[in-house]
Amino acid sequence: MLVDSHCHLDFPELRADLAGVMARMADNGVTHALTISTTLATFPAVREVARSQGNLWCTAGVHPDERRDDREATLDDLLAMAGDEKVVGIGETGLDYFRVEGDTGWQRERFRTHIRAARRCGKPLVIHTRAAAEDTLAIMKEEGAGEVGGVMHCFTESWDVAQAAMAQGFFISFSGIVTFKNATDLKDVARRVPLDRMLVETDSPYLAPVPHRGKPNQPAFVKHVAEEVARLRGISYDEVAAATSRNFFSLFRHARAA
């Protein structure tokens, strides 16, 4: 068993060949996947993909730098979305200052709304943070994100940030970036995060791991992420696969292993 804890199966690159995507997952021992919501407008498509397969689940949320919706998601919006049995988490949410210029207050308010929704519905958070770790951790603490927990997805921050997130009850998820030759600091974090606090993901169709770097990513490739984590830690692939799958179902307790 191996779980891709973060992918975007509603995106055209993957949705157009969903049958093939699912077949390649099976061929590579990837048994389950979580497909992630990024906008209000596309949530129905995300949910449709999750409903189409017994081994898929989804989240409800709006990406921190997404501006395509004609209005902000309200607490009631998120709670209504989270009521679906296929929705097992809230997000992806968080802060991303990398591409945003000017005032970022709207991002922080959006993040707070998502944390409040997660606490209300009792479903964990999927958090994205880029160039904003200090503010992300501060808002998590202020809003009581630790009450529901969650995952710091596609982690690229320092060991100190990882420790601070884990102290609030969060898991650390590694993507294909950990396979990149120049990701030396991240490789060190992957060696140090306790195995019982770790997830793996693809963030597909982005960030394909070595040996597929530069190509469209897909959930089947999460196997390479787990293999690299195993290599870095000097343990077996099977041990990483078992631990990260167990962690996934422990965190996303509304998901059920088929």
Give a quick rundown of the structure.
This protein has 258 residues and is α/β, with parallel strands linked by helices. The protein has helices spanning 12-15, 18-27, 43-51, 75-82, 105-121, 133-142, 159-167, 184-192, 222-233, 237-251, and strands spanning 3-7, 32-35, 56-60, 87-96, 125-130, 150-152, 170-174, 198-200. The longest helix has 17 residues, at 105-121.
Element pattern in H and E = EHHEHEHEHEHEHEHEHH
Q: Helix share of residues? A: 25-40%
The largest sheet, given as strand count, sense and whether it forms a barrel, is: 8 strands, parallel
**What is the count of β-strands?**
8
CATH topology: TIM Barrel
State the CATH superfamily name: Metal-dependent hydrolases
Percentage beta strand? 15-25%
Q: Helix segment count?
A: 10
